[in-house]
Structures are given as C-alpha cells and as structure tokens.
Give the backbone structure.
Amino acid sequence: MKFLVGYDGTESARRALTLAAEQAKRTDALVYVVTSMEGGEKESLEEIRTTEENLQKAKDLLLKDHIQCETIQLARGLSPGEDLVRFAEDNSIDIIFLGIKKKSRTRKILLGSTAQFIILKGPCPVTTTK
C-alpha cells in the first residue's frame, strides 16, 4: 500500500502523520510525506528551509518506527490541493491523510479550502484529523 500525508509542519499535520504511521505499521505501507509550495519568488529562503526541516523531522519520526517513507517538496506552480491530488494520481496512492484547521466562512470563500478540494477531487479515500 501507498499512503500520502499532506504535511506542513502544523500540529494538525503532525496528527495526520501519526495516524498514517499507525496504519502503515499494520499494513507495511510506504508513506510519502509531501509538502506543496507554489515555487518561484513566492517563497522566501527561510520558508524553504523551514519546510525542509519539517520534512526531515517527519522522516526521522517514521524511520524511528521502521516505516518506509519518502519526503517530497513539490514546487510546480499549482495550488497545494491540485499538487497533492496530482501526486496521488501519478503515484497510485491508496489513502491520503490530512490535518485540517477550522476556517471562517469568509476565509474559505477568499482562500478556498485545500482539504475540501482534496476530499472532493482526490482519486482515493481521504482521512482527516484535527
């Protein structure tokens, strides 16, 4: 099996990673820990470094439990939702794990919801945690 964890280093993302790790132990799944950034001039060097550090911490946590994993930082100019759905499609992912955060209605209208997009457009089951 192949799992995808949409990961941004937040507490909700860490909970999703933990949940994926628990399932991966039972099923001997490969876990992809993926962060999506728009790329180009939109990210600062500090944001890129923080993302790399977050991915390394996630990898260390999984490897400590002997879970097969890969960390990937995407920067393809897509929204995070589009990026993760495309990655899931391209890699025949079996389950996507996401941490979710509560947003106001106004914020959802203006910014959209990455989790909502992935839940609706994802090619496989999506498990969310808060």
Notes: The chain has a mean pLDDT of 90. Residues 2-129 form a domain with the Rossmann fold fold (CATH 3.40.50.620). Residues 56 and 71 are 8 Å apart (CA to CA). The two ends are 24 Å apart (CA to CA).
